[in-house]
Design a protein that fits this description.
The structure is a single chain. The protein contains 12 helices and 8 strands. It has about 280 residues and is α/β, with parallel strands linked by helices. It has one domain: Rossmann fold (3-Layer(aba) Sandwich). The protein has an 8-stranded mixed β-sheet, sandwiched between helices. α2 packs across α3 and α4 runs antiparallel to α7. The longest helix has 15 residues. The chain is globular, with a radius of gyration of 18 Å.
């Protein structure tokens, strides 16, 4: 039976955070990429909710959460995760983050290890100097509203190669538009965090699953953001980890292949207990 997913808001000193929640059992928190929202997990949440208490939040500045009053860092986003867990009375949870969400999940596991049971991180690129410069360019360009409305079609066409369906692209556009006219908070946060990302990864001790969508990885290389061959730095940095690759996985993989992704994640959550090497 399909599990009902409800929506609610968390009040913080910097504004309200929307989150979705459903199911019962061991908790699992989902963290989305930039510039998406918890809608990135719309297909996955009902699957996870069959056996778990699953939550997904709109990071500050995205979706239906408020825009923060200042530029947020990855540690700031990690604190909002802890605030949500405290609000829900959850002492320890597994966390699944993709792209920007993976950086936030990484920081939670590094800074608050007692709060994280297991970690799943998807598509965490190793930004070199060129990639960091590109992130800076993306931040400077931003999402700007144009008088003639041409920004609407530009965003529609931006994912034409891989999005797969008009319905899914429409959902992405809705998330895009909620970011227009505001700073690209997460792009700035990731750019700043890159300087210490590898050191933070090395601090993670909990069992960790690293997911790669190979089409997604190759897209990052085409954009000049990160080389595909460098992606394994994540597994090398986290001692207690394993990797799974999806050959057909695009940047939309959480929406496009929920059965394949959920099968791998559920198996990991239920069985993986690789001992830490000392």
């Amino acid at each position: 039976m399909k599990q009902k997913i409800k929506r609610a808001f968390l009040d913080t000193e910097d504004g309200q955070i929307l989150y979705r929640i459903g199911g019962d059992g061991e908790p699992l928190l989902l963290l989305h990429m930039n510039p998406r929202s918890s809608d990135e997990y719309r297909e996955l949440m009902p699957i996870f909710a069959q056996n778990r208490r699953v939550m997904a939040m709109d990071l500050m500045g995205f979706g239906d959460s408020d825009k923060p009053p200042r530029m947020y860092t990855i540690p700031d986003y990690a604190k909002t995760v802890i605030a949500l867990l405290d609000e829900l009375g959850i002492e320890k949870t597994s966390i699944f983050g993709n792209h920007t969400g993976a950086f936030v999940a990484t920081e939670v596991a590094a800074a608050y290890p007692e709060r994280v049971e297991k970690l799943i991180i998807g598509n965490v690129p190793g930004f070199g100097e060129e990639g960091k410069a590109k992130l800076g360019e993306l931040y400077d360009i931003g999402f700007k509203i144009k008088e003639d409305g041409s920004h609407l079609m530009q965003r529609w066409q931006a994912r034409s190669r891989y999005v797969g369906s008009a319905q899914l692209n429409h959902r992405w556009i809705l998330d895009d538009l909620k970011c227009f006219g505001h700073p690209l908070y997460a792009v700035w946060a990731v750019k700043e965090y890159c300087l210490e990302a590898e050191a933070r990864l090395q601090m993670i001790k909990c069992p960790t699953l690293i997911l790669w969508g190979l089409d997604d990885v190759q897209e990052f290389e085409r954009l000049g953001l990160a080389k595909a061959e460098n992606r394994h730095f994540v597994a090398k940095a986290i001692a207690n980890s394993k990797e799974v690759e999806f050959e057909a996985g695009t940047i939309c993989m959480m929406n496009q292949m929920p059965e394949e992704v959920s099968k791998v994640v559920i198996e990991f959550l239920n069985t993986y207990e690789k001992p830490i090497q000392t």
